[in-house]
Write a structure and sequence with these properties.
This protein is of the alpha+beta class. Helix content is about 40%, strand content about 20%.
């Protein structure tokens, strides 16, 4: 996928966060030439979508994409505050 194809596809998408986030991440992996979660980790032990996590303030939560020792990724819908996504990952 080229940058032009990526932008052309995603600039017109009106799907909800929940409906679009996994496909968006897969397209991003393709654009950047990076392995996709299921190909890299078929068991989902260290790289997966919807990973259950323990919040720092107690309780359980979910990361939209998680790669052990690398990142937790939280999507938010259009016009949402990205500070909220960041705070959600910190909790």
């Amino acid at each position: 996928m080229t940058p032009h194809e990526f932008v052309a596809k995603w600039q017109k998408v009106t799907l909800s966060e929940r409906s679009a986030c996994q496909q968006h991440f897969l397209d991003l992996c393709e654009l950047l030439g990076q392995p996709k979660p299921a190909a890299a980790d078929p068991e989902g032990a260290w790289y997966t979508f919807e990973r259950g996590v323990t919040k720092t303030d107690g309780g359980n939560g979910w990361a939209d994409v998680w790669k052990k020792d690398h990142f937790a990724w939280e999507y938010k819908g259009k016009h949402k505050n990205l500070k909220d996504a960041y705070q959600q990952l910190l909790r």
